[in-house]
Amino acid sequence: MDPESTPLPSGYGVYTYPNSFFQYEGEWKGGKKHGHGKLLFKDGSYYEGEFVDGEIMGRGCQHLTWSGNTYSGQFVLGEPQGHGVMTYGAGGRYEGELCRGLREGQGVLVDPDGQVYQGSFHDNKRHGWGQMLFRSGDEYEGDWIRDGRQGHGVLRFADGSTYKGQWHSDVFSGLGSLAHCSGVTYCGLWINGHPAAPATRIAILGPEVLEVARGSAFTLRVQLQRDNGETADCESGRVLRISAGVRHVQPPALSEISFFKADEGHGEKPFETPFGFRCLSYPLACPTSLRPGPRAAVERADTNSPLSQGEPGPALDSGAAHGQGDTPGHLRDEMKVPPGEIIPACDSSPPAAGIPASHPQARAQEPPCPVDRRHVTRGCAEFTDIVLGLPPPGLQAFLALGSSSQADSQQEGGPCPAKTAPGTHSSRPDRTAVEPVAAVYPGEYVVLIQDVTTPPFLGRALPTAFRRLHILPEGRPAPPSLEQTPGPSL
């Protein structure tokens, strides 16, 4: 046709391109696609929307068969640009700003796993400031660089933990603070997602062997330390629990008891210590308990007991033993204890059958008290007014052959003592059996400090710390061989 004499088509029509791959159906103006129309592709893809002077321009909807993506929004020169909604064939959805078909500017992206990011994009990636809700329930708010968390940000974990600080390559890196769901806080330097100076052990300060007079209280000061021995002052909030054990086989220089044994029904088995001997669990009295003076404790003890003679003196280690006497008034107020009432010792064992409620050992069988735990503050904790409790009913003590108690028993005409069984009663009287005592036996014990933080900080509890403890008879100095015996620094 002569283009000068034939007018170009306008209106509504259908045009199939010579290569048969495209077909257009819609409005025309001056021979060009103009207005509303639909461009079909041979593979099933299509665009339906506005055209201007032959170009895809304005609002429309595009579906691509090869990717499964469907876009609805603004177009410029055939490409998604402006504001729109992209639904991805592989799963997920994006609503926000685009440029030349890529995410650019502000938008909301939901990935195939249902995770939601809202914030800034650049070159199709999360870039700038944004918030993200992860599938795990964790929430992040802060800086992003090319799809990774980098800069400053806050991560709130689903378990309640919160990290605030610097990021690099999508992990904690730089200065930051973590408030763990267990109550532990770490504030300091992080490297590749891990604390740069974490606590790795519990250290009990003071002499390697604590020497305390029978009936006296003592204090333990504890530090969380790093590998280099420095205090881990970046940490606070760990929960430490103090407990004790009595040496299974006693050294003769310290005690007339040869060894201790738990009743078969007690279910107690000796546990290993780093000192080369085994121990049985032993109860502690409440650290803040009101206790009668040492003299009163001795007066209540059976005078026939070989371990209740004499009067207790002060703790030999003045730096470790202090705080004897009554509970301060403010502590009594906090514990709601009436004036003049004795605060019972604590032990988790049930009362032994046949022991009266007024008996000292019965008073020791109360539910565990919460004051056996301390929270760490800047790497330090202190356990004050520690007192070993009364011998539990399930613990049997066997006298050493040739002991002074055995000799006294033989002079009185009694048979050679085979064992002492504190907390047990026989229907047949036996002078050689030691009656239940009102104080701890002299001998060798251990004190344990355990990390009982729940849940464990960063999934790991610190190793238990041990310290040897010698309970000395009243008025008897420590044997020189034991005074000079070094213990491991644990």
From TrEMBL:
Residues 403-412 have a biased composition (Polar residues). Keywords: Repeat. GO terms for cellular component: cytosol. Residues 293-336, 349-370, 403-431 are annotated as: Disordered. Gene3D superfamilies: Histone H3 K4-specific methyltransferase SET7/9 N-terminal domain. It holds the Pfam family MORN. SUPFAM superfamilies: Histone H3 K4-specific methyltransferase SET7/9 N-terminal domain (SSF82185). InterPro entries: MORN. This is MORN repeat-containing protein 1 isoform X2.
